[in-house]
Structure formats: C-alpha cells, structure tokens
Amino acid sequence: MSSFNFDSDSVLGLTHELCGIQSYWEREKVGEDGSYNGVHEGNFARRVRDLLSECSWLTVTMEEVEAGRYNVIAADCPLGDIEMLFTAHLDTATPSDGWNELLGSICEDKYYNLGAIDTKGAIASIIDACKKVGQTKGVGYLFYVDEEYDFKGMDHFIQNHPDVRPKIALSGCGGQARMLVECRGCIEIYMQVRGKSGHASRPREGLNAALALMQAYSAMEALCNSANALSPPIVTSINLGGFYAGQKVKDGTKDSAAEVAPVANKIPDLAWMVVDVRPGHVAITGDALSQVAYYAIDRFNSDLENADYNGTIEGDGNGDVFRRIRCLRDPAEATVWVRHYRGCYVSDPEAVQVIRDAFNHMIESEDVNPGQFGYIDVAEIANLRGASLVCLGPNGGNQHSRDEWVSIPSLIAYRDGCARLLNNFKPKA
C-alpha cells in the first residue's frame, strides 16, 4: 500500500498526465524517402506549450526542429535578457519489454512509468513550480526534442538563438538528487581503411586493413590516456564500439557499418570501426583524434615502405652492402568521420551556489562524479554560451529500461526546490 495517490500533490498528478503522452522516436521507422510512421514528441510538445501558456507573464513559442518535432521555449523577458534557464528534454527512450510494475502505478513511495525520471517528472516539477511562484523576471524555459538520439533539438536551439546566454542553467536530466556540475563530452568517430587482399601465406603481397585500423585505434587510445595526466582530473574514456574486417562486400559510412566477408586464408582488404570517446579535457577534440588516426595510417604505410624491397642485395662498389628499397604495395587509404563532437564543461562553483542553496533540502549525497556519468547535450549551453550549468533531477531509477520510477517524496521536494530557485527572480517591488 501507499500513502500517496494522484491527488496527494499537484506535481504527482501532472507527472502522471505527462507520462501518459508518448514521446519517443523510433529511428528504424524512418523510410528511405525521409517519411516517418512512428511515435514522436509532437503531442507532448503541444501539451507542454499549453501548460506554460497558462502563465500569463510568459511568452511561449514552439519551433519546429523537423517534421512533427518541436522545441518549446518560454520566457518572462526578451530571450537575450535571460539570466536563469530551466531546461529538460521532451523525448524518452523507447519502451522496454518485461515490466513488472504496471505503467502509471504507485507502489509505496514510487511512481512507475516510462519517462517518470527521464525527464517528465522534472518537467512537471518545473512547470508546477512556475505556476506556484508566479511572475518572475529574467527566467527562461527550454523543453527540447531528440536528446536520446541525435541532439537535433539542442542543436536547433543553439544555432537559432545566439542571443540566449544565461548566467546559470538547471537541467532536469542528470544527477538524481545529486548535483552534476561538470561533465565529460561526447565524440563519436567512424573510420574505414582500405587495404589490398592477398593469400595469407604471402602477407607481403597484400596490405592488411585490419592491422592498419588497429594501429589507428591504438593511437587514439594513447592520446586519450595522455589527457588523464592533465587538469582538471576528469577521466577521459575511449570505447571500441564495433570493428568489422574482411573481404570487402560494401564500404561503410558514418551511418552504417561496412559489409565484409571474413575469410581465414585471405588478407582483409577492408576494415571499419566505430569509436566512442568521452573527453574530460579540452585538448581531446574530434580534430585531434582524427589527426592522430591519420598519422597512425601514415606510419603504417611508411613502415611497409621501409620493409618492402626487391629481394636483391647490392653493393656500392666501395665494399658497403645495402638493400634496394622499393615499395611493392599501394598505401592504405583511410577515411575518418566525426559524427558527434561535444566538449566537456566545468561550472563555476560560486555561480551555481544559488542552485545548491535552493535544493539543499533534497540533495542526498556529494556531487556526481563526472567520470561515472554519460553525456548530456544540454552541456552545449555551458560550452557555447558560457553558462554555469547544473544537472539535477529528483531521485529515481531504471531509466532506459523496464520499471522506470521516480521517488514521490523526492519529486515533491524537487518541485519545491524549483520554486525556491524561482523566488530569487521575483520582480523587486
């Protein structure tokens, strides 16, 4: 049994309503002509717009990011005058099978539903707090699409609103009842190497694309490891997400893996990989990783050239013996695509103290270790606009999986924290 029901507090009822509106994106339902026949965030964006429009002091707009998908932006002032920005993403992960708890149910002090913690509970809290506090000055709200997939909503906002430069920002996506004040970036790299096939018994007649690509990965890994000796002490990680090598069937791209046929007694003439890097230092960029990868391929080709010769030993007539160097193979050809490059950020402790003070009644432990946390696209507001950003939501669990839940007491406390923060921006009498 639970002491809570949907009439217990306005924020719980609103969370239940918002979770009832599906807002996920199914990439596999995009047709070759660009058409889409799945769920998207449109209906949810319209409901959020309507709720914010009930606050007469806000100017509310919807901006189409792509067909049927919208960002919702609201402010109590011109956008260029925003000092404090509340933000959260409208989309959820796609539904998971095997839920043990009924969607939309309350069990003890937990509310279960898709999006409850990521991030519809936070959106409900921000809107409910806005209504309870009333008129403010210098506050903006951004609820955006596509955080779970390709960051299109945040990219659209950044590109179309260069005038929005808040001093501080609070994202409802992130540390659950814990503050995240610094965040690693996110770099997604795809790389392909073309070599030359040959029989495995005569490796010098071919050019092993797999070995070349492995050398490129090792170079990127070495660069990432070097950053961990630098300051600030946020660990840079690198992950080899996929590696395909063999006889070429179809070239890979930045969107799809190469198609290959592995044959034990043939030298691979094509290799493709996808790499995920989480940089903790500004020195680790997409360009830097691309450069070391290309350099590694140059070294690979250079080593081959110095190892190839025509099999004859000749003299120079003065008693010195030397090898006649002749490259027997064309060099490996490499292509690197940087699909995503998002930098890391570190917020100013003094600037975010006002957020820490507003939520100190609900923060359960020390700040989140950024080395144990993924990337959040709202970091672009810190990177490109200079805002000091805090990611903080109510306590909960199982996001991106079955039985997603939010703690009801923490949800209420989070709404109250949003209200405390907003009270700092009430118009002076």
Overview of this protein structure:
The chain is an alpha+beta fold. It folds into 2 domains: 10-184 and 344-423, Zn peptidases (Aminopeptidase, 3-Layer(aba) Sandwich), CATH 3.40.630.10; 186-340, 2-Layer Sandwich (Alpha-Beta Plaits), CATH 3.30.70.360. The chain has helices at residues 10-19, 42-53, 116-133, 152-160, 209-227, 286-307, 353-359, 379-385, 408-423; strands at residues 59-66, 69-75, 84-89, 105-107, 110-112, 139-144, 168-176, 182-183, 186-194, 237-250, 259-261, 270-278, 309-315, 321-325, 333-342, 345-346, 388-393, 396-397, 405-407. Strand 4 (105-107) and strand 5 (110-112) form a beta hairpin.
Question: SSE layout and pairings?
Answer:
Blueprint lengths: L9 H10 L22 H12 L5 E8 L2 E7 L8 E6 L15 E3 L2 E3 L3 H18 L5 E6 L7 H9 L7 E9 L5 E2 L2 E9 L14 H19 L9 E14 L8 E3 L8 E9 L7 H22 L1 E7 L5 E5 L7 E10 L2 E2 L6 H7 L19 H7 L2 E6 L2 E2 L7 E3 H16 L6
